[in-house]
Amino acid sequence: MTAIVPIRRALLSLSDKDGLDGLAAGLAGAGVELVSTGGTAAKLRELGHKVRDISDLTGFPEMMDGRVKTLHPKVHGGLLAVRDNADHVAAMEAHGIGAIDLVVVNLYPFEATVAKGADRTTIIENIDIGGPSMVRSAAKNHAFVAIITDPADYAPLLDQVERQGGTDLDFRKKLAAKAYALTGAYDSRIASWFAFADQGEAYPASRFIVGRSPTMLRYGENPHQKAALYLPAGPSTPGLAQARQVQGKALSYNNLNDANAALELVAEFRDGPPTVVIVKHANPCGVASGETLLAAWREALACDSVSAFGGIVAVNRPLDAATAEVIGTIFTEVVVAPDASAEAQAIFAKKKNLRLLLTGALPDPARGGQSVAVIAGGLLIQDRDNGTLTSDMLKVVTKRAPTERELADCLFAWTVAKHVKSNAIVYAKDGATAGIGAGQMNRLDSARIAALKAREAAETMGWPEPRTVGSAVASDAFFPFADGLLAAIEAGATAVIQPGGSIRDDEVIAAADHAGVAMLFTGMRHFRH
């Protein structure tokens, strides 16, 4: 196996021709024969480079609207021949097959064609066949052939040719790995299109999850765990991975996980009034809407100012200077916003450890898609929980219906509860959380913890009574017994929103009626594990 392979003949077939002129000039200057296909050959001639048509190499014209041009033994024989194998060399000589030392290919823009909303025939025509075949052949025979699939590798290739007269094995190995990653991802996106878009199969027989451009993180949830952030291989929704980090040190795994929880929750209010979400360990510890972001911040912080220390803040409006000023008064790990004024950015610039992420837009909470969790020996895949409620979907099950204010607070509490780890209990009053109980093994404890948080907030803020008095309370799943409801009533809740569906619903409704509390059934559950 030869370590340095000189390049005497290169085959170029490109959909994206950026950088082609410089690449061709560098190769031609090193005495490399350029062979190319229709559109690429025409472009090379337009740029003034000497090029040999693929049809001249193969002895066959391009045919069938270009579907058949590189699928030929004189191409794949020239790519796959093992150069130090006597039988292979003899076959090449017998059939007039010349070696191809370099392939430069990028594939038909299948994904971009789909994204443009093209018709089915056009999409099918943009499934590349010859390109991936050449890529795979060249990559398999990387002992003798270099395969370039990324324009970022043009410069390193030319550097190797200039410095050492050819490509070395380590470089070709890296190129081969990159090439197979490309064809694997390309085929997975085609398979996914056939399954999801063309055939309407939400759960096909095979499922592909492809990421690209990893960013290594400092560590995972704990220092002994390695971690990386991958971008989706296909189209993506506005999110943290696409956000612009204005300032602050690198984001950690936990920062990203918590910030995503904050972003997903604040996105629920993207068409609503100014709203602030404060998250700690992926659970909201304060959420509020107000006339301004500043007013919403103060109400959200009041819910649990202790837990907010070292938390994540997300807002649904461009961040202004006044709000940035008060956020900066407590230690905050990350702030996520659609945008931020120059004054707000200047204020945060004084906090060197605070990360500011600007998303440009908020994701659609009603978007489709699926979520993936890894378990021992398999993957759990489910539809996103994009269920939303409107007042006309609710069923009043008690003698008393909620007032207009109670109804608004019920819907607010329900929206927040959707993003709280189960078992979840959320008290809300006047568009702000009053107490949040998260992740408990039973619903009664969640109700008690949320009420305790509300009492602590009242003591901290100097209020005469906790905000749970006169509040609405949301439960992410039904009350299996009346005890959780009774704890909420004891805390002062006057309206309840819950899915219903317990075998003891009659007992729970009777307890609500006895206390004069209004209760709404949603018929929808929001477990979050």
Describe the structure.
This protein is α/β, with parallel strands linked by helices. It is built from 18 helices and 23 strands. The strands form 6 sheets. Strands 10-15-14-13-11-12 form a 6-stranded mixed β-sheet, sandwiched between helices. A 6-stranded mixed β-sheet has the order 18-23-22-21-19-20. α8 (130-140) packs antiparallel against α10. The longest helix is centred in the middle third of the chain and has 30 residues, at 169-198. The protein is elongated.
Major β-sheet, in short?
Answer: 6 strands, mixed
Beta percentage is 15-25%
Q: Low-confidence segments, ≥5 residues, pLDDT <50?
A: none
* Global mean pLDDT: 93
Task: List the strand order in the largest sheet.
Answer: 10-15-14-13-11-12
| Overall 3D form | elongated
Name the helicity range: 25-40%
Helical run tally: 18
Radius of gyration: 31 Å
Give the tally of β-strands.
23
Helix/strand/pairing category: alpha/beta
